[in-house]
Amino acid sequence: MEEITVDVAIIGSGTAGLNAMGQVRRARKSFVLINGGEAGTTCARVGCMPSKVLIQVAEDFHRKSLFSRCGIEGGDGLSVDRPEVMEYVQHIRDNFVDRVLSNSTDHLGDEFIEDYARFVEPTLLAVGDKRIRATGVVIATGSTPIVPDAWRVFGDRVITTDEFFELEDLPDSMAVIGLGVIGLELGQSLNRLGVKVTGIDLAANIGGLSDPVVARHALDIMSNEFPIWLGEAAELSETDDGRIRVRAGDNEVVVDKVLAAMGRRPNVDHLNLEALGVEVDAKGVPLHSQATCQVGDLPVFLAGDVNGHRPILHEAGDDGKIAGYNAAHPEAVTAFRRKPWIGITFCDPNIITVGQTHGHIDLESAVIGEMPVAPVGRALIMGKNKGMIRLYADKASGRFLGAEMIAPAGEHLAHLLVWAIQNEMTVGEMLRMPFYHPVMEEAVQAALNNLYAEVDTKNPGPITELATV
Questions:
Q1: What is this structure's pTM?
Q2: Which residue segment(s) compose the domain that 367 sits in?
Q3: If DSSP states are collapsed to H, E and C, what string results for 215-268?
């Protein structure tokens, strides 16, 4: 059996693995990049990118509902060709995947091994007919959508995002089970493209929201587009005509397909992690530091969706950089400061969580400022005047803590707010920033003014930049 010795072995060529490889290359260390299964990142193949293509098509088509009130005639005559939509989504998706591969693995030689890896020892891997001995190892094997075992008997009538973006046509009806990011995004888009959608979630709120006011607005807005059942587990059975009956509490619907969007589980089953000799959590993931990505005191590092912390591309990228850096310098493992939380659900309006959410703030020491979207001028102009913005700050210091919202252009508002958290700004300092008119950012300005009235720490003068003479 051939044995290869390298400085770093990276298992997985997704976003985390590729970023780890970049750090190892920068350190001028030898490496192998090992990947079993599909190449290309989850984001490009079945996640962020193809879903946003479908969302954009659905939003463009849905816009026709505003035409008549604006004096634009003929909108009722527009139609959608769903097979053409899916072909377009797949075409753009393939373009994204090709870009990832052409900028990463396509130009690797023997350093790229297409096979599955299994630990023999903490720094020894079995990969096909090879043994890889490495000074440091990065585990970046990603995650897989969750499907209950009992549902597998329904075959391709129960799908996940792994199969959804391969569909040649859309079904006439679908139950979307799980109303987090992907469930809301695809559920709303499918409904706007003419699929009869029913949304179901065991949770009490949708979109991962913990603020009761924002959660109520989100439910009101989204349930005006398609039925949403909350707080009950879904049960599936087959009908006489081969369709699927979905029950949740007292509710029942018969659909052509079910989209299982109940989260993802880490890909660790075939790694033989027992060979590491470390404690694992309930999901089978080795206990590790989020600041270093290190597993115990071993020269082994976890990065990306496999760690289960923040299954988002930019977080996976940061994980990969940290894990790759430390795997290349195992003699001096370094802790890194992690960025504040930013979560975006690209439904319409966007659902946003930033920094400390309502469920994490201390309600006795924090204060809340809010702004409804309904009267915001820019939102009225766009015909998107629905939603609520809620901001949180420490009452005594005035330091901005976080936000939850459902708002148009929320993807952009979220960045302004998380940058403020990163820079540890107070509410008063944020209000000294320029705000143009008319823009959606004015809604944030109004919420900040509302919040400023509640904090104890005020600016020494008017809410504007102090002159220096």
A1: 0.94
A2: 342-452
A3: HHHHHHHHHCCCCEEECCCCEEEECCCCCEEEEECCEEEEECEEEECCCEEECC
